[in-house]
Design goal:
about 500 residues, Immunoglobulin-like, TIM Barrel, nine-stranded mixed sheet, about 25% helix, binds alpha-L-arabinofuranose
């Protein structure tokens, strides 16, 4: 029996903001050096930016890029990365026990972002940093001139302000691992006072306060309540961070990670709405899910990288967090991204963490090639086809019990794009054995034509893309049959992630 999906024109969750398809580049491992930036690489442009990497970032249609961290930012002085390169100090990076040469700083990031068409999302240091340093950073970046820091930017060769709109007020300050970690009330106050200064300098900016770094911390979700009660009026978004891994070793638990993400978002929504009511506010706090991905923390060689050899400490661009993604990881990521879309009424921004080399869809060899990791493909599908308005859908999907509770065996999202007159339907089949028949009723869109089916399927679960075999895991376009077309009924393979495109006349 086919599972019936009903989608109705006008029955939308919300607009999917372009900022849902952001990513993240931190000064960590080889994300910057030999990632996006490598002077002397055969593909490097006149600034030293790797164009082979930039081309793939553009293929992913990445909207925002969060920078410069991450844990790195909590010990970073942004002034170290501006001005003549030969005068920039070489520093110790406390977060990743690395050497930071500061060859690449905020000006280079601005130039890179401008050139390759991504919107910067900048983080300020609330670890070792002060509220005033954050204010100076906004002044340097966004004011036209006539003040010390805005004129300093001009002296550094940037006549026009950078105009950064999105700012993270610190990073994961709830994490005991964070440089100068704070308690919730301490962070709330520091964030509030920092936010006041930053918005006095430039009232047009949008601020993201640090929410919980993971649901695993004992402070979750109390942290979020306390922080919001302290700085609700000053900030525009609360961040969520979460990495997912195969922690129980059970396939269905890992594939069901999307339920955990969904529960997290619902808890933060509820917490934010509680604070809204308590403060008698009219403002809805939006969510920036600005770190998510699969990250197999347990068993990753980076954990003992520094213990293995003391000489590994404080080197430039060490090979940290270079996770090799599998076909299974790509399926899990597809499910997670559907969850972001289904919550787009509150999740207005998101960043896949990260973009290049460090737990990333793009992987480079220093002075060599670049490949697409398996997770490149689900991100690309959502980013390219998942823009428009997210449709609510009705379907009676069978559930299984997983570590997350009741888990639907199909996780999906639907997005209507009015310009293209197209509905994109994304679906993950978690079932390990069962092909599922899905039949669609698309109500109120006029004549409907199923035009394409792309599928990520039929691979060994642990298959990876490597430099030797870069196309071991790639999606395939599956021809749409006449029967599928006539009945709008399709077959979804077990353990597969799929994209269906429907051409429609438009909202009737
Ligand atoms: O993305 C890797 C790290 O994970 C980031 O630096 C930090 O914010 C998170 O803990």
């Amino acid at each position: 029996m086919a599972i019936k999906y009903l989608l109705q024109a006008g029955n939308y969750i919300s607009t999917v903001e372009d900022t849902l398809y952001g990513s993240f580049v931190e000064h960590l491992g080889r994300a910057v050096y030999t990632g996006i930036y490598e002077p002397g690489h055969p593909s490097a442009d006149e600034h030293g930016f790797r164009t082979d990497v930039a081309n793939l970032i553009q293929e992913l249609k990445v909207s925002t890029v969060r920078y410069p961290g991450g844990n790195f930012v909590s010990g970073y002085n942004w002034l170290d990365g501006v001005g003549p390169k030969e005068q920039r100090p070489v520093r110790l990076d406390y977060a990743w026990l690395s050497k930071e040469t500061n060859e690449f700083g905020i000006g280079e990031f601005y130039t890179w972002a401008q050139k390759f068409g991504v919107e910067p999302m900048v983080a300020v240091n609330l670890g070792t940093g002060t509220p005033q340093e954050a204010g100076y950073f906004v002044e340097y970046s966004n004011l036209k001139g006539g003040t010390y820091y805005s004129d300093l930017r001009k002296q550094h060769g940037y006549e026009k302000p950078f105009g950064f709109k999105y700012w993270c007020v610190g990073n994961e300050m709830d994490g005991p691992w964070q440089t100068c970690h704070l308690e919730a009330d301490e962070y709330g106050r520091k964030a509030r006072e920092t936010a006041k200064i930053m918005k006095w300098v430039d009232p047009s900016i949008k601020l993201v306060a640090c929410g919980s770094a993971t649901t695993n911390l004992p402070s979750y979700p109390e942290w979020d309540r306390v922080v919001l009660e302290t700085c609700y009026d000053q900030v525009d978004y609360l961040s969520c961070h979460h990495y997912f891994e195969n922690s129980t070793g059970k396939l269905e638990d890992f594939l069901g990670s999307y339920v955990r993400m969904d529960n997290f978002i619902h808890t933060i929504k509820a917490t934010a709405d509680f604070v809204k009511a308590k403060l008698r506010s009219n403002k809805d706090m939006m969510i920036s899910f600005d770190e998510y991905n699969i990250w197999s923390i347990e068993g990753e060689p980076w954990m003992d990288f520094f213990d293995r050899d003391p000489n590994n400490r404080f080197t430039k661009a060490p090979p940290l967090l270079e996770q090799h993604y599998t076909f299974l990881d790509a399926l899990v990521l597809g499910g997670l991204m559907c969850t972001l879309v289904n919550n787009c009424d509150r999740v207005k921004m998101a960043s896949l963490a990260q973009l290049v080399n460090v737990i990333a869809p793009i992987y480079t060899q220093p002075n060599g090639a670049v490949i697409k990791q398996t997770i490149f493909y689900p991100f690309k599908w959502l980013s390219v086809y998942g823009r428009g308005k997210a449709l609510r859908y009705f379907a009676n999907v069978p559930c299984i019990e997983t570590v997350h509770g009741q888990t639907k065996t199909l996780q999906s999202a639907a997005v209507y794009n009015d310009e293209r007159k197209e509905i994109a339907f994304f679906v993950l089949n978690l079932d390990q054995h069962q092909t599922q028949d899905l039949s669609f009723t698309l109500d109120g869109f006029g004549k409907v034509e199923l035009t394409a089916h792309h599928e990520l399927a039929d691979c060994p679960l642990l298959a990876q893309n490597t430099f030797a075999e870069p196309n071991a895991v790639v999606p395939h376009e599956v021809p749409v049959t006449k029967a599928e077309q006539d009945s709008l009924t399709v077959q979804v393979k077990p353990l597969s992630f799929n994209l269906y495109l429907f051409k429609v006349e438009g909202e009737q």
